Amino acid sequence: MPYDQTRYDVYAASRSGVYNAGSNPGGLAIARTALTGTQISDASGSYALHPSTVDRSGPSQAGLRTLYNQGKLAVISNIGTLIQPITKTEYNSTPALRPPQLYSHSDQENLWHIGRTSASSRGWGGQVADLVRTGNLNQMLSPCISVGGGNRFEVGTSTFPYQMSSSGVTNVSGTGTTGSSYQRAVALQQMLEASYPSPYQGEYSKILGRSRDLYTLLNTGLATGGIGNVTTDFPNESLANQLKMVARMIKLSRATSFDIQHSRQIYYVRIGGFDMHDNLMSTGTNGHANLLARVSQALGAFWAALGEIGAQNEVTTFTMSEFARTLSTNGNGSDHAWGSVNMIMGGDVQGGRLYGSFPDQTLNGPVSLSRGQFIPSTSVDQMAATLARWMGVTSTGDLNTIFPNLGNFASSNLGFMLH
Q1: What 8-state DSSP symbol labels residue 43?
Q2: Could you tell me which of 382, 361, 352, 371 has the C-alpha nearest to residue 79?
Q3: CB-based burial of residue 215 (10 Å sphere; 0-12 exposed, 13-18 middle, 19+ buried)?
Q4: Is 80 helix (H, G, I), strand (E, B) or coil?
Q5: Of 5, 67, 72, 9, the residue nearest 38 (C-alpha)
Q6: Whether pTM exceeds 0.90
Q7: Is 108 exposed, middle or buried (CB count within 10 Å of its CB: 0-12, 13-18, 19+)?
Q8: Quick check: 244 and 305 in contact, CB under 8 A?
Q9: Is 327 helix (H, G, I), strand (E, B) or coil?
Q10: Which residues, in sequence order, are CB contacts of 287 under 8 Å at separation 6+?
Q11: Residues 281 and 219 sit within 8 Å (Cβ to Cβ)
Q12: 163 with 190: CB under 8 angstroms?
C-alpha cells in the first residue's frame, strides 16, 4: 500500500474508505495509523506492508517486513499474464491483445504455470529443469518435487514432478515386513522383476519399481533422527508444514553422504483461500489478515531453516498468483482483477526494492479499469525468465523457446537477482 499521504488518500478512496465494522463495513482500506511499523522505503516512494507481515514473536523469526528491510525480500508490483505490453486504449479496442480467459482462476493459473499465453502441456519450471538437471547425481529422483499436489508448472519434456506430502513419502498400502503384509510385498516384488511382452506393462513395472526404490531411499533419510531433519520451529499449519518438508528435502539432497546429491531442484507448495468475495476484512482464521500472517510466518520459518542448513544463498523462493483483486468493494469483499503483487526471497536476491511500476490507484485511471483492475506493467515471462537465468538457463534461444512471448517485452531480466 502507498504510505505517503497523497497516494494513501487515493488508495483509501478507491477501497471505499477505511473498514469499520460499525460505521463502514463495506470499506476495504486499512487505516494509515495501523500501518505504523510496517513501512518500507524504496526509491519510487514510501509504502507499507500489511500489518500481518511483522515478525513472529514466539521463536523470534523474521517476518516479511524484516526480510525486506534486510535486503532478502523483493516485491514485484503490478505483474500479470500478458501477450505483449498493452495500453488501456488497446485493451478496450483490441480484445485479441488480452490474455485468453482473463478473469478465470483455472485458466490464469495455468498461464502462470506454462509461461505463455497459448496452450501447452509443459510448464516453465519443468522445462527449466530439463536443461539444468544434468549435474544432479541421482537422476532417478526428479529435480521437480511437489509438496502441494499435481501441477502443470513442474512438467517438462523429460521431467515430471515427484509428488510427496508434508508428512513425507507413502509406501504402497498393505506391503510391510511381517505376516500377510510381507507376503504381499514379496509377491509385488516378484511381479516387478518379471518380464512382460507388452511395452505398456513393462514401462508400468519400471515406473512402479522406481517409485518403490525412491520410497525406500527417501524414507530412510526423512525418518526420525535421519539426515533430513531440521530443528527450526515451524508453525503447525498447511503452508508452513509444506515448506518444512521442502527444507528437509533440500538438506537431504545436499548431503554428500546420501544418495541424492542434487545441485538443481524446483519445489512447489500451495496455499489457497484468497478468493475472498466475502469476509475479506474478517479477523477470523479465514480472513485476509490471517492468511497473510500465515504466509509471513511460514516464509520466515523457512528462511530460518535455510540458515540452519546453510542454504540461504542457494535457494530462491517466489510466489505466483493467478491475479489480484479489485480495489473497489463488492460490499463484503473484492472480485477478480488482473495485475498483482508477488514476492521473491533469497540470499541472492537484490531485495529491499520494489520492481516494476507501482500503478496509479485511481479507479478507472490511466492503467486501471472501472473497479481498479490494473493492466499489468510487468509480465509473468519477465519474472520467470529472470529466475530461469539464475537457475542456469542463459541461452537466449532456450529462454525464447520456454517463453515464446518474451521477445515482446523490453527486458528479459528484471534485475532482482544478484548473480
Answers
A1: T
A2: 382
A3: middle
A4: strand
A5: 67
A6: yes
A7: buried
A8: yes
A9: coil
A10: 279, 280, 281
A11: no
A12: no
Centre a 10 Å sphere on the Cβ of residue 149 and count the other Cβ atoms it contains: 12
What helix, strand, coil percent values describe the chain, rounded to 5?
35, 15, 50
Burial class (CB in 10 A: 0-12, 13-18, 19+), 357: middle
What is the rounded CA–CA span in Å between residue 408 and residue 386?
Answer: 15
Task: Note the residue count of the chain.
Answer: 419
Q: For residues 53 and 35, what is the distance between their CA atoms, to the nearest angstrom? A: 11
What's the CA gap between 409 and 389, in Å, rounded? 16
- Reported as half-sphere exposure (CB side, CA atoms, 13 A), residue 104 has a value of 9
| Residue with cell string 505483449 | 84
List the chain domain ranges.
Answer: 5-103+271-305+318-408, 121-140+159-269
| pLDDT, tens digit only, all 419 positions of the chain | 999 999 999 999 999 999 999 999 999 999 999 998 899 988 888 999 999 999 999 999 999 999 999 999 999 999 999 999 999 999 999 999 999 999 999 999 999 999 999 999 999 999 999 999 999 999 999 999 999 999 999 999 999 999 999 999 987 777 777 888 888 878 878 887 888 888 888 888 888 888 889 999 999 999 998 999 999 999 999 999 999 999 999 999 999 999 999 999 999 999 999 999 999 999 999 999 999 999 999 999 999 999 999 999 999 999 999 999 999 999 999 999 999 999 999 999 999 999 999 999 999 999 999 999 999 999 999 999 999 999 999 999 999 999 999 999 999 999 999 99
Residue whose grid cell is 495501523: 34
Q: Closest Cα partner for 317 from 376, 258, 250?
A: 250
62-to-48, 156, 240, 303, 304 alpha-carbon distances in Å: 16, 35, 14, 8, 8
CA 260 to chain centroid: 24
